[in-house]
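User: My collaborator sent over this chain with a note saying "see what the structure looks like." That's all I know about it. Can you take a look?
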Amino acid sequence: MPISLDMSFRGAAAEQHLIDAYHGGQALAGMGRTLQMISHYSVTGSVRRRIPFDDNMHVMLRPIRSGSVEAVFDFVTKPETIVFGSVASSIAGAALWDFVKFIMQRTVGRERLPDTEIVRELDQERGGDIEALSEAIEPAIRNIHSPIGGTANKVVLIYGDNNNVVFDQATKDYVDTSIKSEDLETLDVSVSSINVHDRTGRAYLADRHHTVRFEIAKDAAPRTLPTLMASLNEYAAKRERWVSITFHAFRAPDGRIKKVRIFDAVPASDEPT
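Assistant: Without extra context I'll predict from the sequence alone. Here is the result:
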């Protein structure tokens, strides 16, 4: 490819080149696991949560640099490796970094549009997979935040010049805390992706102007999945079909909806019954 990512600890004791051994180790392990799961998906197109991962791409850790609290992760691939289904690994560095940045920022609530056409198409065509991958890496992302609030204020992942992903107290609060609503709520949404096997996906909230992860409750009304699938089919045809969902919300401490658990869905022109 090659692609190398610098992981840097900033603030507090890290400014004196010190980091708590346990929490620093948790952060390094979390970063390694996150990057390995992302690399596995980029090569295979499948989400895998545990070893063994595909051996066409490895994430290798260099020794921590003397006099600093930084580590370097290298993506190492075989020459013939193809990523994202069609791109030779030798020229895929920018796309892989864009995917790393896109999926990490989505997981910590800082959603952004991809920079590369490859990743934009991937999100449009395989959004259900992307959502499943984001959910799969969340525990490891939580571990990356372990030193924050203690011996570091930030953990920064850097690629090239001023191209980074920042983990800080705000993103730690986001991944650590989910406040479930006591009452059922209703909103109009347009479905952008569904993973039928996991009964999860992502939907655009009409009144919030952003997308949110959803899961379909085990005891949801039988019409729920077909209604959501109809909305997805219209989205794929570049037409909007709004549906009204009834759900419990899981919110971050700042009030943002992180996820919804859907119990019913009907066309938006109808009233839920």
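A starting point for your reply to your collaborator: The mean pLDDT is 90.
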